[in-house]
Design brief:
- The complex is a heterodimer of chains A (579) and B (117).
- In chain A, a hairpin with a 2-residue loop joins β15 and β16.
- Chain A folds into two domains: 100 residues, Alpha-Beta Plaits, CATH 3.30.70; 348 residues, Beta-lactamase (3-Layer(aba) Sandwich), CATH 3.40.710.10.
- In chain A, α3 packs antiparallel against α5, α11 packs antiparallel against α17 and α13 crosses α15.
- Helices cover 36% and strands 26% of the residues of chain A.
- The model of chain A has no long low-confidence stretch (mean pLDDT 92).
- The radius of gyration of chain A is 35 Å and the shape is elongated.
- Chain A has 18 helices and 24 strands.
- Chain A has 579 residues and is α+β, with helices and mostly antiparallel strands.
- In chain A, the strands form seven sheets. In chain A, strands 2, 3, 4, 5, 11, 19 and 20 form a seven-stranded mixed β-sheet that branches.
- The longest helix of chain A is centred in the first third of the chain and has 34 residues.
- Chain B has a domain of 59 residues.
- Helices cover 63% and strands 0% of the residues of chain B.
- The mean pLDDT of chain B is 80.
- Classes of the chains: A alpha+beta (579), B mainly alpha (117).
- Chains A and B meet through β3, α5, β9 and α9 of A and α2 of B.
Chain lengths: 579, 117
């Protein structure tokens, strides 16, 4: 009995002990699984769930050749080969294969890089294609890694570099279209949040997975015509060789749509090697970002204002003294001397006589003074109708507005407006002037300039944009008269330059440059602004040449470049001669 | 209100069969399962269910690896396609065309004739 009691007592003790242990386990498990549930779930999620960025593909950029899109900027997946020299066992085999596969992309000192066994990181080759990288992957050398990146590729080299811009190391578009349309081109990255294994392979287990696909960037088609752009760039290079200038710019537009067919500058840069550019100014696109005093090109617009307001016609005469006094200040005829006496405004246009266009400004007032009414009228036309002194909204980064001083400004006096009548005292960009002139050429309809022709869908189909709705700058009659005046002006100076049977017109411009607040006659900018076509105008070309301490003239230095491009365009566009 | 009225009573076949099978005998099994056997059976059932779960989970994961492999192949092929497009663009670029042997043999026409379209 006593023994049974003892046995029963031990059993109870053992049972109690076991219950106690189990109780402790239960309490501990309760604490861990219930009370600390969220904490441990968080730890597990941090360990198991990875957030992976699904990178959007940057949109491609196409140009045109005629009406067919051609690639200007593409994306390429490239690989960088890195090594842990400490881990690499057979240097010779690795070097042989990399030199064989990577060729010129391999670093020149592979032996030294791999020989430094104290280093744990060395770049052996850059810019390998997928096929090249696959050969290295297949070799499966220990200590060799491949890092994948995407880079922009430019099949046409430096073509239209300043219009295109480039993409920096952070993937952001800089300058040109890349900069201006960065948000559209970049797209939106996606997100993959999921349980992964140790190799970061996403697994479908778990109930917190998120798969938000990336939205790729938009593929844009530029209105820039590859062939026209190439010829224009070559024409600028040839022109600078002839005249000894440092800089040249050109823009070619379709006056009926405002689409830019070419936008070129010299010097330029290689967007694939933008980091090697010595002078950051080379990234700029002076066609849109360098306001300047346009000089005599403005005379076409001043004439248009006068005709449109009904105060002058091309045959209106005035007494040319070789100068005009405005508020006690004598304004001389700069380039065109002679032709004194009673002459027509057409003669003034032909010979680029400042006095003729100051006369137009005076006739907009009381006939002998550039009154406030005259200045208001000129400002209204220049700023509101020809859109000078304001950004045009062209899709190229870095566009600057320039300046047109209004009559309400104390500086907007008669002397300034007399200067503005022949292209001084205002700052405008080439794209503004070319667009305004295009409106004259296109019957008085102003089209907003654009470099975008359309887009490319995911299947590679070209979807052209609708042509923008134009605004009226001057009447059809005014536009036709001014266009004819530029045609006559060109015939009077460059009669044998153009191909016979085509209508080509234009106006020279030679502007002094402002240096330290004073006009410098020893450094001038030469421009030529003109159009051409068959039964109707098909293109507008504006050329600008300049150089440090160079006296460059519109007629002598810019016009030959215009003629080169114009005659080439007649062939390229397959224009048929009249008659 | 119904358009049809039942015209005769009927007896279901089930009721007829019930009376036919009223001599059916249910035998009680002589095998009795004790608590150990029950425990073992429950453990076995849990093991089987666990194995089924593991099999399904592993199968799902194996699909993930297959999917990953296919995605990788698609990416590689896409990269190769892009490389070919770039090569094509380079071979048809203006600079390449200008420097081609075909272009070198081209001559400038002495005159151009136009026809009405």
């Amino acid at each position: 009995m006593k023994l049974e009691l003892q046995k029963g007592s031990r059993s109870r003790i053992l049972a109690g002990f076991i219950f106690a242990i189990v109780g402790i386990f239960i309490i501990r498990l309760f604490y861990l699984q219930i009370i600390q549930h969220n904490y441990y779930v968080g730890l597990a999620d941090n360990e198991q769930i990875k957030s992976l960025t699904i990178y959007a593909k940057r949109g491609l950029i196409y140009g045109l050749e005629g009406s067919t899109p051609v690639p200007l900027v593409l994306n390429q997946t490239v690989y960088t080969v890195t090594a842990d020299p400490y881990t690499v066992s057979d240097d010779t085999k690795v070097i042989d294969l990399i030199e064989q596969v990577a060729g010129g992309n391999a670093q020149p000192n592979l032996s030294a890089l791999l020989g430094n066994k104290e280093s744990r990181y060395a770049v052996l080759a850059k810019g390998l294609t997928t096929v090249q990288a696959q050969k290295l992957k297949d070799a499966n050398f220990p200590g060799i890694e491949l890092q994948q990146t995407t880079q922009r590729v430019y099949p046409e080299g430096t073509l239209a570099a300043q219009a295109l811009g480039f993409v920096d190391y952070d993937g952001n578009g800089q300058y040109g279209v890349e900069g201006e349309l960065n948000s559209q081109l970049a797209g939106t990255n996606g997100l993959l949040k999921t349980v992964t294994d140790v190799s970061d392979v996403p697994l479908t287990i778990g109930d917190k997975n998120i798969n938000k696909p990336a939205v790729d960037g938009k593929n844009v088609v530029l209105s820039i015509d590859r062939a026209v752009q190439s010829h224009v760039e070559q024409a600028l290079v040839d022109g600078l060789k002839r005249n000894g200038g440092d800089h040249a710019s050109a823009v070619v537009m379709d006056p009926a749509t405002g689409k830019v067919l070419a936008m070129a500058n010299v010097p330029t840069f290689d967007p694939a090697n933008y980091s090697k550019v010595q002078d950051a100014a080379d990234f700029n696109n002076p066609v849109v970002s360098a306001p300047y005093e346009p000089g005599s090109d403005m005379k076409t617009l001043t004439m248009a204002v006068g005709i449109d307001k009904g105060v002058v016609t091309p045959t209106t005469t005035y007494s040319n003294l070789g100068y005009i006094d405005i508020d006690g200040i004598r304004v001389l005829n700069g380039v065109g001397l002679g032709h004194l006496g009673n002459i027509t405004l057409q003669t003034a246009m032909n010979n680029s006589l400042n006095s003729g266009f100051i006369t137009v400004a005076e006739k907009l007032g009381d006939g002998t003074n550039i009154t406030l009414q005259a200045r208001d009228t000129m400002y209204d036309y220049f700023y509101n109708k020809f859109k000078l002194g304001q950004v045009t909204g062209i899709e190229v980064s870095g566009e600057l507005p320039g300046t047109i001083i209004p009559p309400t400004d104390p500086q907007g006096n008669a002397v300034r407006y007399s200067n503005m009548a022949f292209g001084q005292g205002l700052d405008v960009t080439m794209i503004q002037v070319a667009s305004a002139f295009s409106s004259i050429v296109d019957g008085g309809l102003y089209h907003k300039p654009t470099v975008i022709a359309g887009s490319m869908d995911a299947n590679g189909n070209y979807i052209p944009n609708q042509t923008s709705t134009p605004t009226r700058s001057v009447s059809q009659s005014t536009a036709d008269q001014v266009r004819e005046m530029t045609h006559v002006a060109r015939d009077s100076l460059f009669a044998n330059v153009d191909r016979p049977g085509y209508e080509v017109g234009g106006k020279t411009g030679t502007s002094q440059t402002l240096i330290n607040g004073n006009y410098d006659n020893n450094q001038t900018v030469g421009t030529y602004l003109g159009y051409g076509g068959d039964s109707s105008p098909k293109y507008v070309i504006m050329i600008q040449v300049s150089g440090k301490n160079k006296t460059l003239e519109g007629g002598r230095d810019a016009e030959p470049i215009f003629a080169d491009i114009s005659n080439w365009l007649i062939n390229y566009l397959q224009l048929q001669p009249k008659g | 209100m119904s358009y049809y009225q039942r015209t005769a009573e009927f007896t279901s076949r089930r009721q007829q069969n019930w009376s036919r099978n009223q001599n059916t005998v249910a035998f009680v099994s002589s095998i009795k399962l004790g608590p150990v056997a029950h425990t073992v059976l429950v453990a076995l059932m849990i093991t089987v269910l666990g194995l089924i779960y593991l099999t399904q989970a592993t199968r799902a994961t194996s699909y993930d690896y297959q999917s990953q492999k296919i995605d990788s192949q698609i990416a590689d092929l896409s990269n190769q396609k892009t490389d070919l497009e770039i090569e094509n663009a380079r071979l048809t670029s203006l600079e390449t065309v200008k420097n081609s042997s075909v272009a070198a043999n081209l001559t400038t026409p002495s005159s151009t004739q136009y026809v009405s379209q």
